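REQUEST ID: PR-0412
SUBMITTED BY: lab tech R.K.
PRIORITY: routine
TASK: structure prediction, single protein chain
INPUT:
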Amino acid sequence: MTKVLKVNGYAAVAIRISVVPPKGMEVVDSAPYYELGLSDIYWKQRLTNEWKWRVKQGEMTRKEARKERERYGFADGGLTKEEQRIWERCASNTEYHYLGSAKTFVRFGKALAEAMPGMEKN
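STATUS: complete
OUTPUT:
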């Protein structure tokens, strides 16, 4: 099942898959552990950079780019000083699904560790 929802005013896609694990295995839902604020900053930066590039290539007018920024609530299209500070402090320079966020990665690890006793019983 796929749902489109709004997270901090931005569109996000949530995918939920029902899985019956094989005997001796556990399924851990990673969705609750993502740093969604960081994801919002990532998409703001990625989309606005894409629109700027498309304007430069002549594939989009400045007016069209402005309309897209307004539609997503990105105002001037750049990151605020606070968003830039958060990005520099929390993300890596690679596009991992967890955006290189140590906070997200640690949450994943904790959830997996908490699932281990259930696996040992089986």
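NOTES: Residues 36-56 form the longest helix (21 residues).
REVIEWED BY: pending
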